[in-house]
Amino acid sequence: MTPLFPDRSGPFLTARTAFARRVLIGMAVLAGGHAAPGAVAAQDGRVAAIRSVLAGGAAEEAPGCVMGQFAEGRTVRIVSQGEADLAAHRPLDADTLFYGASLSKQFTALAAATLIVQGKLALEDDVRRYLPELPAYSRPVTVAMLMHHTSGIRDSLSLLRMAGLADVGQASKAQALGLLFRQRDTAFEPGSAYSYSNGGYLLLAEIVARVSGRPFADYARDAVFAPAGMPNAYFLDDGTPRKGALAHGYLPEAGGYAVRDTFPRFSGSGGLMLSMADMAAWEADVARNHRVWTPQVAQILLTPGRFNDGTVIDDGKGLSYGGGLHIGRKGGERVIRHGGSAEAFKHAYLRLPDRGLSFALLCNRGDRKASATLAAAMRAAGVRPPGQPVRPQAGLYHSDELNADYALVREGDGLAVTITSPLTDRPRRLHFTARDDGRFHAGPMSLAPSGDPERLVLRRGRSGELVLIRTAERKPR
């Protein structure tokens, strides 16, 4: 079957640890060629801009982020900023291992999909066939419901915290599973609603382990990471991360940063340890190699889930959900994405099949908003994020219906807008930021391009649309 989101093929470089160390920061890595001096200078400028975004105003000796940009499965650039270990002053690089948080879900779903392709598991299977410890609920929970977050299975991390455990990093898989098995009912009728659940993915990983007859981490290593050529990736199995090129997580504290490696040590909903070199290898497999990302596997992961009545899932952010991935369209183009968030780790992943581009961001500082940081890094790389509005011309705009002037100034990636009206003696200044719905937002108010560079569309709540027209001078009152 043809995948819902087929990916393009093209030149690629397979990523191994040795390759990652050869990546030249600031230069496109092209198969079989060299960048011209002018291109190198342009890339240097891009990288400086990206590093500035990743730094977020922090000093050199601070935690930070690694950003990867990929085109048709080849690595365009890997840019790092900050330190993996502040005490040792060890810098972040392509081989640094991060706790992947919910980026893990894509790879948990992949492991399950390989068993489905082999005919050992089915999306329609009642999960009690593999997990008899679960009670019989009002409606059977299926494997598909776990994968698509429609099962009603309660969130395992929330249950651990409600049971009194402040640091979920101290919990074992057995303890987390035990709480799930104790639940007398689901949060809602299975298949009737969408609710993001770490508990559902913990159960999905346990099903993979029981069907394969092997520990989940071992099966994922042999079925996913090894054939994809991911050099550093592995799942935790109730143990501490391996020593080596590990990034500690940090939170701001008392003018500095405090270590916060407070993530769960079991896998399924999280538990993945990976580097940007692993993401480079994975993008090569998705775009060209197809050792793991086969058409059959892609079909499973990129088919939107459905509710019991047949309607497609809405994740509440304008996308649907497949196998560990949010999927849909933004700004008219196909989007595949997912985030990852632990206390001190913030990550984002974005694939744009129509452009043949992919981006990943791995951060070891909990004060970053990964999606916004990735969008800003993309703009610094000269790439417009999906659904992001085109910034209008600076200048003066007028609305006759409001009898008000809007003076626009470009400010960073957004707009600074000063509103002047006879209703007030003092002009009002607002800051509008770009979102992926094609509009600039300042609280409940938004501005959007109209297709005519001389006109903007203004909205606030359900008041409808008003038009702002560009003018050379302030209008008389």
Automatic annotation (TrEMBL):
InterPro entries with a match to the protein in the record: AmpC-like, Beta-lactam-related, Beta-lactam/transpept-like
Beta-lactamase-related domain location: 59-377
Record SUPFAM superfamilies: beta-lactamase/transpeptidase-like (SSF56601)
PANTHER family, per database record: BETA-LACTAMASE-RELATED DOMAIN-CONTAINING PROTEIN, D-ALANYL-D-ALANINE-CARBOXYPEPTIDASE/ENDOPEPTIDASE AMPH
Name this protein carries in UniProt: Beta-lactamase family protein
Higher taxonomy: Bacteria, Pseudomonadati, Pseudomonadota, Alphaproteobacteria, Sphingomonadales
